[in-house]
């Protein structure tokens, strides 16, 4: 698959880059992508939810009524879960939601996501560029020239502080690097914009596995 390289004005530079079938031409594995996204979202959960049980709520432990002769059920404490203000039965407790996935599976998931974007013609190539200072307006203009209207993921070969800061305030734009790109971000974007050097970095990254 060949893609034309655009400049920051959205114009065709006349150069083309051939995308490797080993990275962008695989048959997407939906289950691998599902597991990788599931792990990513699970890792975002703090797991700090907590409710109080009957031994933790404030209240008297005095027996509130006699054992027999009231016509009602036995009751030993106002902190019982059957009373308003009592403890909760089997309530949530702090826990860790993360789980393990094999590296090979995560690799297949990312390759599947890249191949899916390439198959749907949602990948754009732009020549290497930089900004003299963090300028959101200037960065927004570059994206407009590239005709990106929805969610956009820009993948840089390495961290560029000015570009990262320029795109930080744009709600539908995320700037990432080749090493940090993940399946969730790839599937959660409408347009993948690769800086030209990022293609080689991606191919080197996955060929080294």
Protein model, in words:
- The structure is a single chain.
- The protein has two domains: 2-46 and 98-207, Ribosomal protein L4/L1 (Ribosomal Protein L4, Chain: A), CATH 3.40.1370; 51-91, no CATH class.
- The chain has helices at residues 21-24, 30-44, 103-119, 136-145, 161-167, 183-187, 196-207, and strands at 2-6, 12-18, 123-126, 152-156, 173-177, 191-195.
- It is built from seven helices and six strands.
- With 209 residues, it is of the alpha/beta class.
- It is elongated.
- Helix 5 links the parallel strand 4 (152-156) and strand 5 (173-177).
- A six-stranded mixed β-sheet has the order 2-1-3-6-4-5.
- The two termini are 22 Å apart.
Show the helix and strand layout.
Elements: E1 2-6, E2 12-18, H1 21-24, H2 30-44, H3 103-119, E3 123-126, H4 136-145, E4 152-156, H5 161-167, E5 173-177, H6 183-187, E6 191-195, H7 196-207
Helix pairs in contact: 2-3, 4-5
Region (Disordered): 44-75
Pfam families: Ribosomal_L4 (PF00573)
Protein name: Large ribosomal subunit protein uL4
> How are strands sequenced across the largest beta sheet?
2-1-3-6-4-5
Q: How many helix segments?
A: 7
Total count of domains = 2
Share in helix: 25-40%
Q: What structural class do helix, strand and pairing data support?
A: alpha/beta
Distance between the termini: 22 Å
């Amino acid at each position: 698959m060949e893609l034309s390289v655009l400049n920051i004005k959205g114009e065709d530079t006349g150069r083309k880059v051939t995308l490797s079938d080993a990275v962008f031409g695989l048959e997407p594995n939906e289950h691998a992508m599902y597991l990788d996204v599931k792990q990513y979202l699970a890792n975002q959960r703090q797991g700090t939810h907590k409710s109080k049980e009957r031994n933790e709520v404030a209240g008297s432990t005095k027996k509130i009524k006699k054992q027999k002769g009231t016509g009602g059920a036995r009751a030993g404490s106002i902190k019982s879960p059957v009373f308003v203000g009592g403890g909760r039965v089997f309530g949530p407790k702090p826990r860790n939601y993360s789980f393990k996935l094999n590296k090979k599976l995560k690799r297949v998931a990312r390759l599947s996501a890249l191949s899916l974007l390439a198959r749907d013609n949602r990948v754009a190539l732009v020549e290497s560029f930089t900004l003299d200072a963090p300028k959101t307006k200037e960065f927004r203009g570059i994206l407009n020239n590239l005709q990106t209207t929805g969610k956009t993921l820009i993948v840089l070969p390495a961290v560029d502080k000015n570009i990262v800061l320029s795109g930080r305030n744009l709600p539908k734009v995320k700037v990432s690097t080749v090493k940090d790109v993940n399946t969730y971000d790839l599937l959660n974007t409408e347009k993948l914009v690769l800086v030209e050097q990022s293609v080689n970095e991606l191919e080197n990254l996955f060929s080294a596995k």
